[in-house]
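quick one before i forget lol
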Amino acid sequence: MAGNDTLSQDEIDKILNSLSDSSEEGGGEDIVAASLEEKKVREYNFRRPVKFSREQQRTIQLIHENFARELSTYLSGRTRTFVEVRYASIDQITFSEFQQSLTTPTYMAIFSTDMLSGSAILQIGLDIGYVMIDKLLGGPGVAFEQLRTPTDIEMSILRKESAVMLRSLAKSWSIITDFDIMLDKVETNPQFVQIAPPNEMTILITMAITVRDVQGFINICFPSSTLEPISNKLSTRMWTQSFKKSEKQKETLKKLLMLSELQLSATLGNASLELRDLMNLKLGDVIRLNSFYEDPIDLNVQGVPVYKTKIGKNKGYYAVKVEEENKDLLEKLLIQQSLKNEEVFEEDKPPVEGGEE
């Protein structure tokens, strides 16, 4: 070793003095604390592993925010009062913890899909369930002070309403994947429901619902094994791509609707004749219809009565004047016709060889 690389005694003493001064001032503890901050260790619980990332949870949240809006609109019209449904939270808990968090009795609809394996749960608190039933039956929508097991009629009403809710849920999930939801059974005791092992992780989506002055919660529980086949689609990137695709399809469908050709026919009335009367008809006989000359007549679109019209003349031709219309039925007919046109267009389109279409 060269002579200039060797530390002198004075230099060694200075280094030792500086180290002792820094330890007395707490500098050593600061160094240790800084090193600990640099190494942030995240605890991992093997009994409760995290199955879905924050990005996947965010996508599930967006889906159920749309579901909450759909549900709010439906229930407001169904109960003839303002109903607010909003997304509250999303958690990852074990199935046994979900069961223990529920009170008895409650309402639980167990459903499955044609695309995903296993089952899931739609749970509605009976505190809000009885208010909905009261409003549907014409009552003021008063909450019960003490909850009881629903009767057969009340269970039938809740089953029907939950079936409609599940169809709205499938519509909200269609932005990620299309599937049909089947309502398998309903239960009032959480301990009788076993759709997953007790220690399996689940995704629990909670929505707050307010009917008049009564507040409650609706929970949707998906076992991790049920959502695992589509876990790769639960990302904001897939959400954006699907949204853009659906907007493009919407424009295409709109163009097809505007080009649809529909057949119109006006029906003056109907009459029923026996075959022998029909065979004996002669010139000058009068057949009585089931309508009066002052009554509006039906204007049929593709054989379906959509408009109520008055008969008359215009520029020497017989004509009808629209008095009343059924827009919902007309829209349904247009969509059916456009879908048929789209199928014919796809069949007639020649195949593309090489390159992009």
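fyi DSSP finds ten helices and ten strands in the chain.
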